[in-house]
Design brief:
Length: 235
């Protein structure tokens, strides 16, 4: 096993599956199966999910009707809803989970405390981090980088619908080529959309690699954890 402690970053849109919004049961079950496959290897897993399938704060604030900070808080609540859904899917498979929220809502989630998160992760629980950083103006990319550093993860695994990072959008440019490995400086200089700049800088400063890979391909997560060269490594 190449990676013992991982932080899995999923977009909210990943949970939509074939739907235009919301949560698709098939997609939810797929991600639960993928996570279970690496738990069976003895991997410690933390998860951060976005909320874009339910509410996107930045887009809602564009017309000025909803203040940006207010919209961001609404987006944080959407991530908790997604976390609850993933928790239910994992527990249906007999996997112990803990949903920790950066915004207190004790009826549905435990408050985020770093030492508690580390302890539960070491016990083999899947720790789902909800409500982003708990602060407006920060994305769930930043939350993923922050939580990964706090729990001393070996790597951030960014699950996407594509199999890595390309020189251009492969859907628009047939000549786009895939990077197998790239440095943080190269990603920045080439303006590659890996993570938002705050998250990207945090990962670089803490020597925390990011692997962008296709999580929709069954078995990819397990193969990656086992050491196969899948996706694009940014380090």
């Amino acid at each position: 096993m190449k990676y013992k402690r991982v932080l899995l970053k999923l977009s909210g849109e990943a949970l939509m599956g074939e739907k235009e919004f919301g949560i698709e049961s098939k997609a939810l079950t797929h991600y639960a199966n993928e996570i279970k496959s690496v738990l069976d290897l003895g991997c410690e897993v933390g998860v951060v999910i976005g909320g874009g399938n339910i509410f996107r704060g930045m887009e809602a604030a564009k017309d000025g009707l909803i203040e940006r900070a207010q919209a961001d808080y609404m987006g944080m609540l959407a991530t908790v809803m997604n976390g609850m859904a993933l928790q239910a899917a994992l527990e249906a498979k007999g996997i112990y989970t803990r949903l920790l929220s950066a915004i207190e809502m004790e009826e549905v989630a435990e408050p985020y405390i770093r030492r508690r998160a580390v302890k539960k992760k070491k016990k083999g629980r899947v720790v789902i981090f909800g409500a982003g950083t708990g602060n407006p103006y920060f994305t769930t990319d930043t939350a993923a980088a922050l939580r990964a550093v706090e729990i001393q993860a070996d790597v951030i695994l960014k699950g996407t619908k594509v199999d890595g990072i390309y020189t251009a959008d492969p859907k628009k440019d047939p000549h786009a080529t895939k990077y197998d490995q790239i440095t943080f400086d190269q990603a920045y200089e080439n303006n590659l959309n890996v993570m938002d700049m705050t998250a990207f800088t945090m990962c670089k400063e803490n020597n925390l690699p990011i692997i962008v890979f296709d999580i929709n391909e069954t078995g990819n997560l397990k193969r990656l954890i086992a050491g196969e060269e899948i996706g694009t490594v940014v380090s």
